[in-house]
Amino acid sequence: MHHTAMSPSVPLQEMIRAIRSARTQCEERGVIQRECAAIRAQFRQSDNGGRSHNLAKLLYVHMLGYPAHFGQMECVRMIASPRYSEKRVGYLGAMMLLDEKQDASLLITNSIKNDLSHSNQYVQSLALCTLACMGSAEMCRDLAPEIDRLLRASNSYIKKKAALCAVHIVRKVHDLGELFTPAARSLLAEKNHGVLHGAVVLITELCERNQETLERFRKTVPDLVQIMKGLVISGYSPEHDVAGISDPFLQVRILRLLRILGRNNEGASDAMNDLLAQVATNTDSTKTVGNAVLYETVLTVLHIKSESGLRVLAVNILGRFLLNNDRNIRYIAMISLQKIVGTDHNAVQRHRGTIVDCLKDQDASVKRRALDLSLALVSASNVRSMMKELLLFLSSCPPELRAQAASGIFNAAERYAPSQRWHIDTILHVLTTAGGDVRDETVPNLIQLITNASELHCYTVHKLYRALLTDISQQSLVQVACWCIGEYGDLLLRGECQETEPVQVTEDDVLDALETVLQSHMSSPATRGFALTATMKLRTPLSLTANTDRIQSIVSIYGSCIDVELQQRAVEYNALFRKYDHMRAAVLERMPVIEKNSPGHTNGESTGEPIKDIQTLKVKQGEPLLPQQPANQVLTLTQMHVV
């Protein structure tokens, strides 16, 4: 007999067809509402033969996201039915429609208890699966003794399901772990892989939750090693073979359990060293399955107290992963190497070339990990070659990695710089390439570095002046350049510098460059502040009157500037020309050498006394630090003049 979508009870396939052929959301809702009404009406009839068929349709409706809670009591009724076909759909419905928050879930506790003792293993299995899926803490407490009994059953099919059910119970009610410990221990003697897998998962759960249980299970390490050896050297077994590896799922589970048992324990670690070496050398790494087992082996080796040779072997496996075509495998290798670079630095260092090559990887996340790892591998012995690679990377790296790369290069350069000149050159290189992506404290830190390297003042000011002529878009570079020109302009104008080829620079040239910065739309107010102060401080013993006038006219323009900081600066500097001309030379003295606050100053953490903090701030704004003068109004203004 052919049913239409309207009829009270269409078969499941027909309902699915009607729902799928609906052209609009509205039409689909109509079909489902009609079906749900028919199902409801049939649920009310006590003796209908199509109960399981109706509940199956309701579960399909539930999977589409429509409300199906009115089927909960029907699930309870069907679970209590003696017929397997009805029980099966009833239990499936319970797993989908019930959870521990619903009172109806308590109503099935008794049915589950009865079915756990059923003569049919498939009915027992339904009850076990349901309890493992949605058993509340209360149900778990009531039924735990039943599960413990089933763990000792003779039937492997039931033992496997009971072990996984016990895992759920232990997660729900921690103190029931004690109950399952003896049975879990005896399951390791099983030959059936499903039961072994369940046993290993259960033991892992028990050990992670209780330190005493962990100590007790350390005695099982030799048994686990034997099971694992059997898997590694076993011949081909069609039911367990996955791509040439014998039951990789069980191998991975055992390796994870060994990792927990061997952590911080010499004896347990010694008992598994040989096995781990055997797995590491005998597992085929050409397929993903083999790599999964190898990766777990590596993690186990690195977590336990393993021999140094074994650790090197583990790092070498990760090194091989870095050459894999699969970027997921490259990525996990990076993450693992990052974790151990502190403890096994030399072993990781051997793979430096491969790691640096990963900086060129197309994948953004692999690139990010390669950057982290490359920065961690910089040391005093390889700083020059690693910096070459990192600076090359910086010039072409994606914008989102630039700030991280610049910051890492600065830290490494400060830690391992072979000379001050190299250090300054490296930082200037970064500022030229990625000046817009560096942190705010970079400018004061570099200024401090330059100030302290007094023999390099001439070299640095020439280099920065040339950089300023080439590009004024990188704000941090321009700020440092302006500061240096203000401080060491006389060295620049002198023109003789052993480090670079002599260049004849006139005071007008320098003023032109500073004026370009002041007028450029790319310059931020802070950069203009640096340039204004540099203009003011630019002096030579034979300063021309014309240039003094030019400086005064540049400064006075900013007396009516919209930016309050610049305006205040300009007004005070103008006052120095007019009212306090006799003090100008003293006020514009060269900055004293700045003392470093603390060894780790690159990150801008200031731990010195407040006075040093004020100095750093002044430097940051390019403001001259004043020598002791009699207090008067203008000086006080200038001294307070810090943003």
Give an overview of the whole structure:
- With 643 residues, this protein is mainly alpha-helical.
- The chain contains 35 helices and 2 strands.
- It has helices spanning 12-20, 25-44, 51-63, 72-79, 84-97, 104-107, 109-116, 121-134, 137-151, 156-172, 177-187, 193-209, 211-217, 221-233, 248-262, 266-282, 288-303, 308-321, 327-340, 345-349, 352-357, 364-377, 383-396, 399-416, 420-434, 442-452, 457-470, 475-494, 507-519, 525-537, 545-557, 564-578, 584-587, 610-620, 633-640; strands spanning 241-242, 245-246.
- It has a two-stranded antiparallel ribbon.
- Helix 16 runs parallel beside helix 18 (308-321) and helix 17 packs parallel to helix 19 (327-340).
- The protein is elongated.
- The chain starts with 11 loop residues before the first helix and ends with a helix.
- The relative contact order is 0.03.
- The model is unreliable at 1-7 and 598-643 (pLDDT under 50).
Describe what is shown at a glance:
Belongs to the adaptor complexes large subunit family. By secondary structure, the protein is mainly alpha-helical. It has 35 helices and two strands.
Strand element count? 2
- Overall, the morphology is elongated
Q: Please count the helical segments.
A: 35
Biggest sheet, open or closed, and with what strands and sense?
2 strands, antiparallel
**Side-by-side strand order of the widest sheet:** 1-2
Mean pLDDT across every amino acid position: 80
Rg, Å, rounded: 38 Å
State the separation between the terminal residues, measured CA to CA.
88 Å
GO cellular component, one term: AP-1 adaptor complex
Pfam families: Adaptin_N (PF01602)
GO biological process, one term: intracellular protein transport
Family: Belongs to the adaptor complexes large subunit family.
